[in-house]
Write a structure and sequence with these properties.
mainly alpha; two-stranded antiparallel sheet; 1% strand; Amino acid/polyamine transporter I
Length: 488
């Protein structure tokens, strides 16, 4: 069933029952026709909102607000573009998962290119890039600790450094997330994501509306300037491009999407692939529901992105204040106190803890699955075996947050950690783009292909991601290494 624990031990009555209950295995008995009515379709919405939960904390609350604080309104168009342009790639990944039933790493293992041992080059490259990505989520752990300092000042000393209590708090935050995730319950992850994102969205919307009654009111000319494509100076452009990897769906969120689609039941309900029209129609039906899921979640996180950006540009930029590291939450709180009054700071801090925590929860749920799958493809164990998969995910659900907390304890610069992690995400996106085009033109059943308009969107998305990655490669690698005298 879609909302059951996907790692629940199989009923001992039969191996067939075990296969039916495992969403990573497709059987004829597990087939379910897609609903045709709107209410029925909405019941299966959910995977995209788990992505929204993982996006909002690092991309929207931190990176987007920093860009708005530094650039003012002129880069809002770029942030919106960042949210919209990557969805076509996400949809192509989702179509491949539904039609093939394969997890992301299983699909990666079939990409063209060299094999290193049992695993494809793409899996090894992803593992390497995820080392830098660990810093981003370590920065989110830091964001929670900094927010907790509002209520427990002893976690940070007078110089803005972590005290022993602060380091302990980071590990306790990490452990609490692990405690929620290690059992692998899909339903808990989905419902908690929806609740946490919804509550903070309403609070932020109230603040933005209240802004119009203050000296920081946003004018029509501000909005026009924000949506008119304009390139800023190089320093601001690099900040914006770094945020490109985080705002909207990043490479790792697109990769994670397939696991949530599978665990929601989209792939198993489609059933084993065959040449019948019945199967093709069923697959098309579940793909259409996936479109609803992806587009509604895109609307949700794009609205959140725009609200955070506007608050950063209208309040922090005009105040001449840019959030930095262990003053991050305190500075971000100014966006709310300047619009709703001093009382809002406490509510904001609670909301910030909630939204950052939702990011940690959704990220850990996704990472534990992706790393477990990658290690299975390398040959450390059999990912397709449900019991082995459950143990691997449970173990990684404890080990990964331990790494996050340790990185923050050593670096203690949450804002910079988030931005640096965003840079690595852009390069993960390159692998994702390559894979999506391969899925579209080499793997997808011709009966499931969309029209010309969809292909145009897919290519626009792919080219935009490629150009951003090339620019970052030039600015962050080629210039510093080969032309250091020109500056980076």
């Amino acid at each position: 069933m879609a909302n059951e624990n996907p790692f629940k031990p199989a009923d001992s009555q039969s191996a067939n029952a075990a296969a039916v209950n495992d969403p990573y295995r497709r059987t004829a008995e597990g087939v379910r026709e897609p609903p045709s009515d709107l209410l029925g379709k909405l019941k299966y919405i959910g995977p995209g909102f788990i992505l929204s939960a993982s996006i909002v904390g690092s991309g929207e609350l931190i990176a987007t607000t920093i860009v708005g604080a530094e650039a003012g309104f002129i880069l809002m168009w770029f942030i919106i573009f960042s949210c919209l342009v990557k969805v076509a790639v996400q949809l192509e990944f989702g179509k491949h998962a539904i039609s093939s039933g394969e997890s992301t790493m299983a699909s990666f293992n079939d990409l063209p290119g060299p094999q290193l041992g049992k695993a494809n080059w793409s899996i090894w490259t992803w593992l390497f890039l995820m080392v830098a990505k660990m810093m981003q989520v370590g920065g989110i752990v830091g964001g929670v600790v900094v927010a907790l300092a509002y209520f427990f000042p002893d976690v940070i000393d007078g110089e803005g450094k972590l005290t022993g209590w602060g380091i302990s708090a980071g590990y306790m935050v990490a452990a609490s997330v692990a405690l929620l995730i290690f059992q692998g319950y899909y339903q808990l992850i989905e419902k908690a994501s929806l609740i946490m994102i919804g509550a903070f969205t309403l609070f932020t919307m109230a603040s933005l509306l209240a802004l119009q009654g203050t000296d920081y009111a946003i004018t029509a000319s501000n909005v026009v300037a924000g949506i008119t494509p304009t390139l800023p100076d190089t320093a601001l452009l690099i900040v914006a491009i770094g945020a490109f990897g985080i705002t909207g769906v990043g490479g790792d969120e697109i990769m994670a999407y397939n696991y949530w689609l599978i665990e929601k039941g989209y792939a198993s309900y489609t059933g084993p692939r065959n040449e019948s029209e019945v199967w093709a129609n069923r697959a098309q039906g579940w793909i259409k529901i996936m479109y609803w899921d992806a587009l509604l979640s895109m609307l949700a996180y794009t609205v959140m992105t725009v609200m955070f950006y506007l608050l950063g540009a209208a309040v922090l930029n005009r105040m001449g204040v840019v959030p930095e590291d262990n003053q991050l939450i305190s500075v971000l709180g100014n966006m709310y106190t300047e619009t709703l009054g001093p009382w809002a700071r406490t509510v904001f801090v609670i909301g910030a803890i909630v939204v950052l925590y939702s990011t940690l929860m959704a990220a850990l749920a996704a990472w534990s699955r992706m790393f477990a799958d990658a290690f299975g493809r390398i040959g450390l164990y059999d990912f397709q075996d449900a019991a082995s998969r459950k143990r691997a995910i449970a173990s990684l659900a404890w080990l990964i947050p331990l790494g996050w907390a340790t990185l923050y304890a050593f670096i203690q610069l949450p804002g910079q950690m988030v931005i640096l992690g965003g840079l690595s995400t852009v390069f993960i996106l390159l692998i994702v783009v390559f894979a999506s085009l391969y899925f579209r033109y080499q793997c997808l059943d011709p009966r499931l292909r969309s029209g010309v308009a969809y292909d145009v969107c897919l290519w626009i998305s792919s080219i935009a991601i490629f150009l951003v990655a090339i620019y970052l490669l030039y600015r962050k690698v080629i210039v510093p290494v080969f032309f250091p005298e020109s500056g980076s």
